[in-house]
Design a protein that fits this description.
Length: 491
């Protein structure tokens, strides 16, 4: 989900944040893990009543402390739109918890399963058990939401959970420490902080499940470390999510939604449209419309409270270097700067920047962009657009703009992505009855709502033999009765 999981000095910033003292370093990782493992051995999983109370406590705390969240995210970003924080870090979390609490009793209920006639009158059922002690490694781009949602899912399943927030969001790390002291008990929840060394040690712990949100490259290291203990992993990664615009679709509608999805959090979203595929006859009109729609949504950039900054100087410099790489390869770079402002690089406000006529080997068409840079790629036929997508690693999201149902099905059935939104962007993430996750290089496993509960639960199948049964007919010594029975069973 995030572009990468980097190391940076964060101890000084974290030391001034409110909440419990940070646990950091390899020894502290082991100590926090040991505390939760001991609680699991002695107390097991959380019962329904405890789960419901803790979920309610988290929801109330988030609602009460929304301003603290806005302040923390603004600090971590330099500038983070308060409305984006309320939508992405507060509403999304509250909505998910409300959904879980409304359905948890139903999800936890054992499920009877049918039994084949051969094995009647035995019965079968499935029960859901908490998987155990869960580890969560969170990213910097939505540092609260993408950390707390898997924590909430793990608690809904009755697990004990340990989180490692991103070192690039130290103020949000302080939020998690407050939750560890004010909301969730120490035998249920632990927070450890630090850089790459702490992440590596974290990944090496023998968790019962490890949940990672970050880049594909770091996901490989996490999975490799987890394999030492055969720890199952959920990897929420990213990739280059395409937006395909059919030539018959309204460019005004498509561009308005593409700008909304790309402008949100300044494109620092795992499912932001990464590039646009448009019919070659419509490219120039699309470019003009994107500029128009960006101006409508963000008439200014520099001091606009609605427009978020790039998270840090490293990522700002990376984006600028990628744009220069595209220019050096002959691409045309068009910046959407409606007010013609001079933008201070130190503030890291980067407006939507379009890249045209870009060769495929340019970095912006090879790597996940994770910022407000949008390459425009042309196609002649829809089959060509589909082929272009399929020739590349499977993305986390795909967007298709077309009201024609037949062509929608053509795209849906012939492309592979973690999820899809038709005629809009990013909104499939917010549908709590849908699984959210990647496929192939964009991730494995899913969560949100029921799917999060399932991820952190063991689905245990149970067969109960009846007092009166035909077991003797299929046990040694075998004879004619067994032969006859096998003929009936096999056919």
């Amino acid at each position: 989900m995030s572009h990468d999981h980097e190391s940076a000095p964060s101890a000084a910033a974290a030391a001034h944040a409110e909440g419990a003292p940070a646990e950091g370093g390899a020894a502290q990782v082991q100590q926090a893990y040991g505390r939760l493992r001991t609680a699991w051995r002695e107390q097991g999983g959380l019962d329904y009543k405890t789960r419901m109370k803790l979920l309610d406590d988290v929801m109330k705390w988030v609602r009460k402390n929304r301003q603290e969240l806005i302040t923390a995210l603004n600090s971590d970003y330099g500038h983070r739109s308060p409305h984006e924080t309320l939508m992405a870090e507060v509403f999304t979390v509250v909505d998910d918890i409300k959904h879980i609490r409304a359905h948890l009793a139903e999800w936890m209920a054992e499920q009877p399963r049918p039994v084949a006639a051969t094995f009647k009158p035995g019965t079968a059922r499935v029960i859901w058990q908490p998987i155990g002690v869960v580890g969560v490694i969170a990213p910097w781009n939505y540092p609260f939401q993408l950390g707390i949602l898997p924590v909430v899912a793990a608690i809904s399943a009755g697990c004990r959970v340990m989180i490692k927030p991103s070192e690039f969001s130290p103020a949000t790390g302080g939020i998690f420490r407050r939750i560890a002291t004010e909301v969730l008990p120490p035998d249920v929840f632990a927070v450890v902080e630090g850089g790459v060394d702490v992440s590596a040690e974290f990944s090496r712990q023998p968790f019962d499940h490890l949940f990672f949100t970050g880049s594909t490259s770091v996901g490989r290291h996490v999975m490799r470390a987890a394999s030492e203990h055969l720890t199952p992993v959920t990897l929420e990664l990213g990739g280059k999510s395409p937006a395909i615009v059919h030539k018959d679709h309204s460019l005004a509608q498509a561009c308005a939604r593409i700008v909304a999805g790309k402008g949100f959090n300044a494109g620092q979203t795992c499912i932001a449209p990464d590039y646009v595929l448009v019919h070659e006859d419509k490219r120039d009109a699309l470019v003009a419309e994107l500029q128009k729609q960006f101006a409508a949504q963000y008439p200014t950039v520099a001091a606009n409270p609605d427009y978020t900054a790039v998270i840090n100087q490293r990522h700002y410099d990376r984006l600028q270097a990628w744009l220069q790489d595209a220019r050096d390869r002959g691409a045309k770079v068009v910046q959407c700067n409606p007010a013609g402002e001079t933008l201070d690089p130190a503030v890291r406000k980067l407006p939507l920047t379009l890249v045209l006529d870009c060769p495929d080997d340019a970095t912006v068409l090879q790597d996940e962009i994770f910022g407000p840079v949008l390459p425009i790629v042309t196609y002649r036929e829809l089959d060509g657009a589909i082929a272009y997508v399929n020739e590349r690693p499977r993305p986390l999201a795909l967007y298709y703009f077309d009201w024609n149902k037949k062509r929608q099905e053509q795209v849906l059935q012939n492309t592979w992505s973690g999820g899809v939104t038709l005629n809009d962007t990013i909104l499939h993430f917010s549908q709590l009855e849908l699984p959210f996750g990647g496929v192939g290089p964009s991730g494995m496993g899913a969560y949100h709502g029921w799917y999060g509960f399932r991820t952190f639960s063991h689905e245990k199948g149970i067969f109960s033999q009846s007092r009166v049964n035909g077991g003797k007919l299929i046990t040694a010594p075998y004879g004619k009765v067994t032969d006859t029975l096998l003929k009936v069973m096999i056919g």
